[in-house]
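Appendix B. Extra example for self-study. Work through it before the problem class; the solution is given directly after the inputs so you can check yourself.
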Amino acid sequence: MKKKPTLGIYGFTGCAGCQLSLLDCEDELIDLFSAADIKVFYEAMSNNDDEALVDIALVEGSINTNKQLDELKEIREKAKVLVAFGSCANHGCVQAMALGDGKWEQRFKQVYGDAKFTVAIPREAQPIHKFVKVDAFIPGCPPSKIQMLRAITQLLFGNKPTYTNSPVCLECKFRENECLLNDGKLCLGPLTMGGCTAPCPTHNTPCIGCWGIIEEANHIAELKLLKEKGFKTEEIIRRFRMFGGSEIVEKIEKLLEVAK
Amino acid sequence: MKYEYKKGPELYTPIMMRIISKRDLTPDVRFFQIVPKEEFKHLDLDYKPGQFMMLSLFGSGEAPFSISSSPTRKGIFEFAIRKTGKITNKIFELKDGDQLGLRGPFGNGFPIEKMLGKDIVIVAGGLGAAPLRSLLLYILDNRELFGRLIYLYGAKNPQEMLYRPDFFEMLESDQLELYLTVDKGNEGFEDKIEEGMVTHLFKYVNDIDPKNTIACVCGPPVMYKFVVNEILKYNLEKHNILVNLERRMKCGTGKCGHCIIDYRYTCIDGPVFTYWDVIHMRELI
Amino acid sequence: MRVLKLSKKDENKLYDVLIKFGEVWAPVPKGSRYVFDKIEKKEDLIMYNEFIRTILPIKKFLMPQELNILNFKPSKYEKPKVDIPTRVIVGVPPCEIHALNILDKFYTTDFVDNYYMERREKVIIIGKSSLPDEYLFSHKTNTSIVEEGYDLFFIDLGDYYLVWVGSEKGDDIVRLGSDIFSEDVPVDVAKDFVAYREKRRKAFTKDIDLEGVTDLMELMYDADFWDEFGEKCLSCGQCTMVCPTCTCFNVIDEIELNKDEGHRRRYWDSCMFKDYSLVAGQHNFRESRAERLKLWYTHKLKAFIGHFGSPSCVGCGRCIITCPVDINVETVVEKLKG
Ligand SMILES: Cc1cc2nc3c(=O)[nH]c(=O)nc-3n(C[C@H](O)[C@H](O)[C@H](O)COP(=O)(O)OP(=O)(O)OC[C@H]3O[C@@H](n4cnc5c(N)ncnc54)[C@H](O)[C@@H]3O)c2cc1C
Ligand code: SF4
Ligand code: SF4
Ligand code: SF4
Ligand code: SF4
Ligand code: SF4
Ligand code: FES
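Solution. C-alpha cells for the complete assembly:
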C-alpha cells in the first residue's frame, strides 16, 4: 500500500467558513480522513500535531498580525505543497477591501484607539501570496463543495488542481438565467472566477464577486458599462473592491482615470 | 425521412496500453515505448507519419502527442514527451509496465503517396524532431521509394537535441544528408554540430530540383516563418512545402473546436498543412 | 408532404397524445424570456403566441451543458450506460430547426459523434411558426421557413393549426392522435395560409444585410473596429452559450476521493475565453480579445460556408439580446459594411 499523503489544515483571519464548508461534506469527510493522514485540523480534531511536516497544507484566512505572518512562514517551511484555501487566503477577501488606500492606520485608530498590542501586532489584511510562495489555490467564499472536493482529491493524487479560466457567467448561462446586467443590475459575473455554479444570479441576485477576480477580467469595460447604466463611480469601485483583494489595487488608478 | 441516425465507432473511449520501456532524450523530454495490453492486441492500429494519438492518464486527463515511431516498425508505438504540465508531469512518473489510455490515430499525417519518388527536405526544430522521426524512419525503411533525403535539425543546445546518439550515427550514413546545429554551446561536438539558428544550415542545401522536391517543417511556433522563407528561395511549389502544426486539442475529431483555424480543424485537416494553406488562412503560422 | 388540421378546441388534448411518445418539453416563461422546460401537466402545455426564442437553444438537449462521457478506473475506460429519455420538444422555431440541420451535419462530418447521435435520435421536433419580434432576422439568413428537419410543424391560422408532417415519427403521432388531427383540409385554407405568410414576411423589421460579409470578413480582418470591440468585450462567453450553432466544448477529468475511479466530462466552452487556444509553454494563439472575436465571427459568418455551403448564423437574434455590451451579428456587420 502506498503511504497516505499527509495533510494539514490551518486557519488565519477569516470566518472559518472554508473549514466549516469542508466539515459540511459529511459523507466525503470520512473518505478524506481515510485518504489522507491529517495532522492538523483544529476545527475537527483535538490531537493536532503542529510540528508535523506535511505534504499538503491548506491555509485559510488572510494575514492580519505579525504573529500570523510568522506562523505562515513556519507552515511554508513544513509543507511540500502550500494551498491558499478560500478567498481570504487568495485575495484578502472583505477584510482587504480597502487594501492599498493608505488609510488603514487611520481606520485602525478609529476602531481600536491607542490600544497597545504586544502579542499579535496587527497589520493590514493581506492575502498569503504576499508573503510566501503559494503552489496551488482553491477559490471561494466559502468554496463550493464540489469544486473543493475535486481540488483536494487532485492534490492528494499529486496534481495541482486546475480550473477552467472561465467567469461566473459560464455557469450562469448553463443554468439558463437571463443576464442581470441587461436588466440594469450591478452584476460582477464577467469579472469573477467561475466554479461556484452561479447560485446568486440563479436566485436573481447579482454576483458580488466572492470567488475572486478572474485573470481575463475587463474591469474597464464593465466600469464603462455600469456607468452607462447609471451607477456612480464610487458605488462601482466599492463593489469591485469588495472581493477584489490585492489584485484590484493595481487597477484602481486606471479605473478612476477612465471613470472621468 | 431525411436523416438516418447512424452511430459510428466509439471514438472517445481509449484502449489500454502498457509501457515497455523508456529513456530520457533530454533533461525534460522522455522517450516511451508502449504496446497494447493483451485484450487489445487484436486491434490493428495502423497510422501514417505525422499523425498523432490522444494519450489518457488516470485522473489527470488527456492530451495529444505525435507518434514518433514509424508504421514500418509495427506493434510498438513510440512517443517523445516533454514535461510541461499536469498530464506530462504524471506521465514522467510512470514506470515500465504501467498503463495508460490511447485513442487515435488522428490527423491527416504526411501525404506519403504524393512524396514517393521525390527528393525530401526535412527541417526540424526542438521537439519537432518527434513527429519528423516517424517520417525519417519511414523513408529510411523504404529508401528506394524516395529520392534525396536532406535533414536539418536545430536545437537550443546539445543537451536539448532529441535522439542525439541516433543522429550522430546517421551522420556517418550515406542514406541521407544530415546537418545538425544548436543555438549556442556546441563545445565538445564541434565536428558534428554547428552553432547558429537552423536557418543557417540551408547553406548546405544545394542543387535542389524545385519541381521534384517536398519540404517538411516542424518546430516551435516562432520557427515557421523563418524556415519557410528560406525554403521559398529554392522556388518550391507552395503545395510542396509542408508544415506540421500544433494547436490546443480536446477531441481529435473536429468537434471540440479548440484547434480551429479559419474553417479548418488542425486535428482533421492538419496537423500537416501546405504553404498554400498558410497564405490562404490567417492565423496559421 | 402531408398537411393536417388541428382545431384550437382540441389543442388541450395534444399533451395526451405526445406523452405517449416520451417526455414533453415546451417553452415556459422565465422572467421576460422563455426556457424549454419539462411539462408535467397537460394544462401547462401552452403554445404561447408571443414565443419566439428561449434563452438557451435546443442544443442543450443534444449536447448538454455538462456531460459525463467516460467512467474510468486505472485499467479501464468505459462509456457510461445511460438511459436517454425520448423527448418531444414542442414549439421549436424555424430558425432553430435550421440550426439543428447544421448541427446534424457538423456532428456527422468526418467523424460521427455518438454522444450527439444517441440524443439526437431521441428527440422529436415539433416546430412552430410565429411572428417575428424586433430582434429576429431569419429572413436575412434564409432560415425563416423550414422544409426539413422537423417531425411535425405547426402554423397558427386563428381557429386552427395547420400541421405539416415531416417524418415517420411525425406520422406516428398524427396517427395515434387521429381524433384531433383532421385529414379534412379544405382548399380554402390555402388563402389563410398565404395571408399568414404574407403577414409574417412583412412583420420582419430587423434589417441586417449579410450580403458579401464573407468577403468583408477577409477584407476587414485588420480593421480597427475589432480592437474597439476587443476593448469593450467582457469575455463573459454568453454570446457563444446562447448561439444555437456554437458547439465548442472542454473536456475535464475528475477522480473520486479515496476511490480508484473517475469521470471524464464535457462542458460547454467558449472561444471568447482566454485559455481557448492556449497550448503548452503558455503560448496562446489568440491572446487578445480582439483576436478571439475575429474567430467567433469568422466562424459564424464565413467558415461554415467552406464546410457546409451556408453560414452558421441562423438569425435567431440571441446574441443581439444577450451581449451586455452590444457586440453581436448586427453591430459587427454594421462595422464590416463601414
Ligand atoms: C498534434 C499535436 C502533437 C503533439 N505532439 C507532442 C509530442 O510529440 N511531444 C510532446 O511533448 N508534446 C506534444 N504536443 C503537445 C502536448 O499535447 C502538450 O505538451 C500537452 O497537452 C501538455 O499537457 P499538460 O497537461 O502536461 O500541460 P498543461 O499545461 O498542464 O495543460 C493543461 C491542459 O491544456 C491542454 N494543452 C496544453 N497544451 C496543449 C497543446 N499543445 N495541445 C493541446 N492541448 C494542450 C491539455 O489538454 C491539458 O489538458 C502535441 C500537441 C499537438 C496538438
Ligand atoms: S447575470 Fe451576471 S453572472 Fe449571469 S451572465 Fe449576466 S453578468 Fe454573468
Ligand atoms: S455568483 Fe458571485 S457572489 Fe455568488 S457565489 Fe458565485 S462568485 Fe460568489
Ligand atoms: S469557435 Fe467560437 S464561434 Fe465557433 S462554435 Fe466555437 S464557441 Fe462558437
Ligand atoms: S450569431 Fe447570433 S443571431 Fe446568429 S445564430 Fe448565433 S446567436 Fe443567433
Ligand atoms: S461579445 Fe459580448 S457576450 Fe460575447 S463575450 Fe464579449 S461581452 Fe460577452
Ligand atoms: S481537437 Fe477538437 S476540434 Fe480539433
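Self-check: The interface with chain C takes residues 1-3, 5-8, 10-14, 16, 56, 58-62, 82, 84-85, 88, 99, 101, 220-221, 246-248, 250-251, 253-258, 260, 262-263, 265, 268, 282-283 of chain B (CB under 8 Å). If your reasoning did not lead you there, revisit section 3.
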